[in-house]
From TrEMBL:
Gene3D superfamilies: Glycosidases, Oligo-1,6-glucosidase, Domain 2. Residues 16-425 form the Glycosyl hydrolase family 13 catalytic domain. This is Alpha amylase. It comes from the Bacteria. Pfam families: Alpha-amylase. The keyword Lyase does not apply. Belongs to the glycosyl hydrolase 13 family. InterPro entries: GH, GH13_cat_dom, O16G_dom_2. GO terms for biological process: oligosaccharide catabolic process.
Amino acid sequence: MTAEESYWWQTAVVYQVYIRSFADGDGDGVGDIQGLRARLPYLAQLGVDAIWINPWYPSPMADAGYDVADYRDIDPAYGTLEDAQTLIAEAHALGIRVILDIVPNHTSDRHEWFRAALADEPGARQRYHFRPGAGADGSSPPNNWQSVFGGPAWTRVDSGPLKGQWYLHLFAPGQPDLNWDHPEVRAEFEDILAFWFDRGVDGFRIDVAHGLVKAAGLPDGADADAEPQVMLHTEGRHPAWDQDGVHEVYRGWRSVAERYTPERIFIAEAWVPSNERLARYLRPDELHTAFQFDFLRAPWRAEWLRKVVDDAISSAASVGAPPTWVLSNHDVTRTVTRFSRSQPAHLVDTAWERGRWGEEVPDHPLGRRRARAAALVQLALPGTAYVYQGEELGLEEIEDLPAEARQDPTWVQSGFTDVGRDGCRIPLPWNGTEPPYGFSPDPGAGLWLPQPWHWAQRSAEAQDHDPESTLNLYRAALRLRPELWSGAGPVEWIEVAPDVAAFGRGDAQCWVNTGDSEVSLPAGATVALASEPGVDRVLPPDTAVWLR
Ligand code: NOJ
């Protein structure tokens, strides 16, 4: 491996595999490792450098696998440890690296540690946060923290030796928070990392990396009203999040990663108040990269694109880390839909905000056009780009799922006011004209989330031979990206018009028009790739081009 190859993560295109919804190999209506293995050639043809697989560990699925019961095994619905190893080897043979998802803030309530805690085995409850309740009879939660999914962040134990005690869960009740002041918790996770690194895994995405360590004494937060969404807020600090003590944990993790050749890498999911706070996670002895989410919160406006790009690059550069670009993921509204309504003049308030942009009917063709243009911007920028499965097919959010089909705990915990994240997690359409669109080998399989009846045109097969399809746009962009942009140097903005964000990097330029009227392209430039067919001398609205 050359030195350059060991820095693959600084420029990679990483494809996010939401395994439940990627491809079903065994016909039970749930995606699995067998299905993913069968589609690796599709990913190789797409041209991605790595895949990040959402949690695949044994789990009661209180939060789609982010409630882990055993960190060293595979959920039977997804396959076996042997399948996982085969997948890792096959991906590597195709030149695709494998990144897993580690969930250190909380376990499942079925994890053996939590069961031992509930049984009051000696020393077991200290690994979590158990407290007596407040009030004369202890019937109120110990503090005012709210769950990110809605409701109090505390649940009272209703039977057994700990009856009457409360335990902390910043997410669902089935996700008790670990006590990261406990040395056994720290040692256990370093061991879990090594378990997977020894099996050839190239890195980890760290779930709620800004969680884990809480302020001593678990004091009340300042503003009780704002708390359900506090993880996502851009203002203010809260005793549950982004505590300085968490950095010591990552210094330990970095030393585990450095024991391997090539070095294994980390990417933090950390929703912190500012890029400056985020940069603290990326200091040289901590994590390698972190998602920078302002890109997926930016409205479709050139001025915002310029601003979030500049902010992301300069804050990452302040600690010598590469920037990262995310247009969507399994927690947020799909890009097509986000761009299919009127655009606000500010960053979208919360990344998990969905269905709250009023009753405006989405214009999906418009949203898709903008999403295609945004992809070209994303893939022209320096650093790492993340592609969430289905973005390459131009899928939109499914906003009209029937209530009884919804799986996201947010729906119940919010008292049925927040529809949650199921609409961006619908099983992928691979081929055919009706559900399950080749997702499952059994046409009669009941899928874990239903697909819409209008996705025939969006399947991978339907797009495969259409030169104008979104799939072929992504393929072309990923093919051209190394040639045009890798090692191309810093972003240099070109003044064109308020509604145009245009930048050069080396000999290539990327232009995007977010306005209503067309603009002239520079004389003498050649269009290497355009997000819409037929772009030549002028750049139409909601279109991007790569020029050379
Ligand atoms: C962030 C994950 O992306 C999300 O899906 C999950 O619900 C929470 N962390 C809790 O683990």
